[in-house]
Amino acid sequence: MATMRDVAQRAGVSIATVSFVLNDTKPVTAATREKIERAMNELGFRRNMVARALASRRTRIIAMAYPALDHRFGFSAAEFFTSAAEAARQRDYHLVLWPVGNDGMELTELVGQGLVDGVVLMEVQLDDPRIAILERTGTPYAMIGRTKSPEELPHVDIDFDTTLEEGVSHLHGLGHRKLVLIAGNLDDPRFHNYGPYVRGEAAYRRVTAEYGLETIVIPCADTTRAGQEAAAEVVRDHPDTTAILILNEYAALGVASAVNRLGRRVPDDLSLLALLMAPETAALSDPELTFLRTPGPELGQLGTEALIRQLEDADPLPPHLVPARLHIAATTAPPPVKPRRRRRKALD
């Protein structure tokens, strides 16, 4: 097995210089670092992560805190994880997933053990108790999402205003004037303070008001069955609706599966537009859903970068808001044209 001495001899440097590179304890020129890393690859040298952590007092492990018991794991969430893991790997860090609750209890225990250098928070609430815990323990963190007042906190998030503007604009351009938003259920204790639902609904209300449209919002749980029930409510209580926007990927699949059974054809009678969805989820629907793509790949990378910059005392990453982008498929089309009533000729 290759040793540090072997690496030093192959690279033509001292053992101390190899140690500086392995443990990040002193700066080394890019050219010297490249020679050492090339020698390690050629010799098959494997870093001792435990020894490195003890020497540098850093684990080079970062955690992504995701409340898996409250928020279902889908294709969109997976995109955040995979892009964050890749961003960490490129900077020589390891990313682990912590499926801890939003109440912060488990997080308190974990950060107190010094297992990770920092935390990326997902599924952020407007008043998120995890923030106080991380700040009290001095744990570096970054948010993929925003609290009620995020100005001074490191964060990246979806640009909900631009996203909803694009969605409503697409439907309005097709000629739709009777829209309904099937949104998240803010009365659910898990989501009453959930940033994406609050900001998404607020953006929809603002945009429809600017277009002069009636604003109808139906709350819905994050399940396929709830989506089916919400679709039935739209058809029953708002029969003149020509387009539905859905703010949950599981509910969107339920809406799509229910509409045809309710006697409406998609998109001939009723257009469907899914908000914040991954392509793989949209493809599960028949017909395939038109959707606004969740910017998970971008936000996973940016959130990780924001945290690593803190860990390395680099210039902070400015807050980023990234909009979802429209992908047109088979569930949006112009609204049906109502036949005109023929006038009866007056009798002479």
Labels describing this entry:
single chain; alpha/beta; six-stranded parallel beta sheet; elongated
How many angstroms separate the termini? Answer: 109 Å
The topology string of helices and strands comes to: HHHHEHEHEHEEHEHEHEHEHEHEE
What is the helix fraction of residues, given as a range? 40-55%
Query: How would a textbook summarize the main sheet?
Result: 6 strands, parallel
Count of DSSP E strands? 12
Uncertain ranges: none
Report the portion of residues in β strands: 15-25%
Total count of helical runs of at least 4 residues: 13
Find the structural class using helix and strand composition: alpha/beta
Strand arrangement across the biggest beta sheet: 2-1-3-4-5-11
Q: Note the quaternary state here.
A: single chain
Overall radius of gyration: 26 Å
Could you say which overall geometry the principal axes of the C-alpha atoms support? elongated
pLDDT average, as an integer? 89
